[in-house]
Amino acid sequence: MGKISNEELLSKINSKFGEQVTTTGEPFGLLTIETGKEQIISLLSFLKTDAALQFIFLTALTGIHYPDQEKQIGVVYHLHSLVNNVRIRIKVFMHDTDVHIPTATVLWDGANWMERETYDFFGVVFDGHPDLRRILNVDDMTVFPMRKEFPLEDPNRVDKKDYFFGR
Amino acid sequence: MSDIQIVDAPPGVEGSGFFATSLDKAIGLARSHSLWPLPFATSCCGIEFMATMGSHYDLSRFGAERLSFSPRQADLLMVMGTISKKMGPVLRQVYLQMAEPRWVMAVGACASSGGIFDTYSVLQGIDEIIPVDVYVPGCPPRPEAIIDGFMGIQKLVQTESLRRRNEPEYQKLLASYGIQ
Amino acid sequence: MQNHPVFFDNDPQSELSTLNLGPTHPATHGVFQNVLQMDGERIVSGVSTIGYIHRAFEKIAEHRPFYQITPLTDRLNYCSSPINNMGWHMTVEKLAGIQMPKRVDYMRVIVMELARITDHIVCNAILGVDTGALTGFTYMMQWREHVYEIYEEICGSRLTTNIGRIGGFERNFNSIAFAKIRKFVKDYPKVLNEFERLFNRNRIFVDRTRGVAPVTAEAALSYSWTGPILRATGVDYDVRAMEPYSSYEDFDFEVPVGDNGDVYSRFLVRNEEMKQSLRIIEQALNKIDKEPADIFHADVPEFFLPPKEEVYNNMEALIYHFKIVMGEVPVLPTELYHAVEGANGELGFYMVTDGGRSPYRLHFRRPSFINYQMYAPMSQGMLLSDAIINMSSLNVIAGELDA
């Protein structure tokens, strides 16, 4: 697979960060770790700048919403080390009332639009982002549509008769 | 005789050196075979439109050779693809910039009724904001279906009376969309 | 959070003017908007606005069973929809732990490489159109029709194909399909050569595209670029080579790499990728001949819909059909990420399942979206005509941009 195994990767991360980083598992061979929003930038920059690890590629940055958990809104980062051909997934969970997290645009320019998309869908505020505004939805939308309580269909439709849809 | 097909002349009185018919039939004949479409292509149906304009299906046989991307110079607005609520005002603006007589063709399921995207962000059919003349169903419709819709527009153009755009019925239709 | 930046044109003494490029584009690139501040012909700065075709795919996917998400993935990058379909099916197969027979893998490879060829045809031909050369486009679109005929033999539809099932294909490729594929592989290199003779050393084309919008590899990696445009800057990252899926490790192909990332390099990289795709398809045809000819799906009755004759006659098939359609097939509550090499770059599927019949969260890592964010910073200081060429060489497909 890669030149670095997941155990080596995990031991390097744990030796630097200790208890601030918890491991949630290795689903399908992809090491998944969880951390807090205070440590996320130092963890990401350690992974990016370390000479052996070299996770220089930010593959994806997205959000997730678990309304039943205590910390409901999560931000998920996928990093890829091209030299070692290994990926890693980092999750940060936040409470619904304090959805702030430092921005990753200080490390990767590509995080700009990815964070705007996460803000647009989940309402996650990235502190320090140069231009945090909605990107895909209409600009004057007040709600965050990917959250679980938001309905898929437009509730203001008048022409969809329930009779034809079996309701 | 050559085997090139020519359009049938409209019914009229013929004599040596003259041909008399009613004006709207003659104008309808000329207009329908030289429509200038505005391809308002947003998504997948736009690629099928590109295939229709290509040499295999060749929409320009029907007179639609000159595509216009400026609404001021176009007759036919072909809306191909999903129109989202963010795009709705843009589409309406483009429609308003067209000069009479103008026709609108909704190509594809998304333009006709929202298609498979019954979501908060997609306009469920462009006839919520502009009046539509021909709907072409399909996802995406085959080029033959797009040509069939185009021929439907041609039929509408041929049989339209010259006074239609000034009649109160048409004004009422536009008023129902909020267009003066 | 700032408000939307607006350029004020009110000052008559100011030398800068505002130009609105989009969202209704000529040349059917797609619906996205750039508001540019211009100093004559030169762009001073620009702001991109997207979302004009946002169809909320990720929200829809949370309400649909797995096999109903395939038509959604079709409409991501609609110029090469088989690649999206196959990528999604492979994601679900990875989730369910399904092992694919080799013949199915090779059939998938053929379909994916044909889709890659069609996408590059559109991109390079439209790049020619944007420089004014309409001939290339007219001739190359005809060859897209030939690939559409192949798709029609395989799955029945032309553009948004919905090809395949979770576990394989819905029917075997018949002899007509194989004959058409072989004919395409035989006839297309000549056409590609003609296209290259028209463009590669054409003085006008080279002057228009060489040296336009060069990108360094560091900048491209920082903006998370993938695909042919990243390879044109010199980084040889191709998901097919690094993390082979669908038996790509059995094939012998090269990953073309450019030098300075300008528009000319991107054009040449795409042409070369088309040639490599033809090579892969030939090898796949040879490999398929050596496999037993009646395998077209894996033996997974829990996911693969049984044929209708069996459903009407056989009890187990009826039960499986019912369970699949009603979505009572159990899956693990877990999360996974699977990436395929789309025509524009790494198309990734991040799925979180909760054991139910729809995914809990499905995120598409869309290459056009991530590639396009560099466009506004890149176009600072460029001439407007160069910025247009730059945009068409990025191959931004609006469906994938907004999802």
Features:
heterotrimer, B: 180 residues, alpha/beta, two-stranded antiparallel ribbon, 6 helices, C: 403 residues, mainly alpha, 3-stranded antiparallel beta sheet, 48% helix, 10% strand
Brief summary:
The complex is a heterotrimer of chains A (167), B (180) and C (403). Chain A is an alpha/beta fold and 167 residues long. Helices cover 20% and strands 26% of the residues of chain A.
Helix content of chain B: 25-40%
- Tell me the total number of β-strands of chain C: 6
Low-confidence stretches of chain B: none
Give, in order, the helices and strands of chain B: EEHEHEHEHEHH
Structural class of chain B: alpha/beta
Largest sheet of chain B: 4 strands, parallel
Q: Give the overall shape of chain C.
A: globular
Distance between the termini of chain C: 24 Å
Strand order of the largest sheet of chain B: 3-4-5-6
Q: Helices and strands of chain C, in N-to-C order?
A: EEEHHHHHHHHHHHHHEEEHHHH
Question: Percentage of helical residues of chain C?
Answer: 40-55%
Q: Please state the average pLDDT score of chain C.
A: 90
Whole-angstrom Rg of chain B = 18 Å
Q: Separation of termini of chain B? A: 51 Å
Explain this structure to me?
- The complex is a heterotrimer of chains A (167), B (180) and C (403).
- Chain A is 20% helix and 26% strand.
- Chain A is elongated, with a radius of gyration of 19 Å.
- In chain B, 33% of the residues lie in helices and 13% in strands.
- Chain B is built from six helices and six strands.
- In chain B, the strands form two sheets. In chain B, strands 3-4-5-6 form a four-stranded parallel sheet. In chain B, strands 1-2 form a two-stranded antiparallel sheet.
- The longest helix of chain B has 16 residues.
- The model of chain B has no long low-confidence stretch (mean pLDDT 90).
- Chain C is 48% helix and 10% strand.
- Chain C has 17 helices and six strands.
- Chain C has 403 residues and is mainly alpha-helical.
- In chain C, strand 5 and strand 6 form a beta hairpin.
- Chain C starts with 16 loop residues before the first strand and ends with a helix.
- In chain C, helix 4 packs antiparallel against helix 11, helix 4 packs antiparallel against helix 16 and helix 5 runs antiparallel to helix 6.
- Classes of the chains: A alpha/beta (167), B alpha/beta (180), C mainly alpha (403).
- Chains in contact: A-B, A-C, B-C.
